[in-house]
Amino acid sequence: MRVFDSPHQLKEAVNKAKKRQNECSVGFVPTMGALHQGHIELIRKAREQNDIVVVSIFVNPTQFLKNEDLEKYPNKMEADKKICEVSGVDFLFCPTAKEMYEKDEIRIHAPNIRGYILEGTSRPGHFNGVLSVVMKLFHIVTPVNAYFGKKDAQQLFLISLMVKQMFMDVNIIAVETKRDSDGLALSSRNSYLDQFERKQALKVSESLRKASNLVASGTLYVSEIHKEMLLILEPLEIAYIAFVDREFHALEKIELKNSIILVEVLVGTTRLLDNIWL
Ligand code: AMP
Fold first, then answer.
1. Given the CA of residue 35, which atom of ligand 1 is nearest to it?
2. Which residue positions in the chain have pLDDT lower than 70?
3. What is the pLDDT of residues 243-252, one digit of tens each?
């Protein structure tokens, strides 16, 4: 595995590798590090489906709001490098913010409606930063396939929308959410939770399981499902419980195979996201 911090050097290495191997496909997994089994699943998929695998670890400052956890975001660079190495990553890209951004930057804006609902309401401007960095990373890495987790469903949707609307040549591949054995969706931010908070956090996946069971037994009206989920989530500080179709339009009734139920709660000061695709 080769490690790069310079965008230009990585780009050159990718181009050389592409020239050496005719018709070679590059699979790309962008991350912010503190890698866990969720990230590893993305890398595994990329390894399975491509000739060259590139992983980036970059805690992107433009997607954090002023009062957020940019400064204390978990950093496990040495362990992350080992994980990438044993997972068969070819190129690991770990740039600094200086290498990624200039002072006076061209701006990319998330769409006015679907970029400012849900996570976009909780974190206004967050998706502008996400789309900007993903656009830059795609230009540097030039992947054929890029892998994103369904756990961040709105992010996944907006990146797919950007690729479509900007006529970019990247396949966006959605990967299932990895969970701990007790149901908690894996997240680098779970390390902020103390024992009590972690127990409380389980209510999120419990509420989604309840929703899934209700739908399976024929309850499709969102108002009814919402009521039942609230009973489970009530002890927590709820940012939103939302019911959308796969294009992020609000639903009154679940459409089978075209719906996502999303939950965001605050446990202590930690923001937790989870969802279920139905
Ligand atoms: P992050 O490092 O949190 O920015 O996440 C990098 C990528 O990993 C994103 O595409 C996430 O959606 C994905 N990811 C994060 N957690 C999980 C999980 N538990 N299961 C699957 N993918 C995940």
1. 2
2. none
3. 999 999 999 9
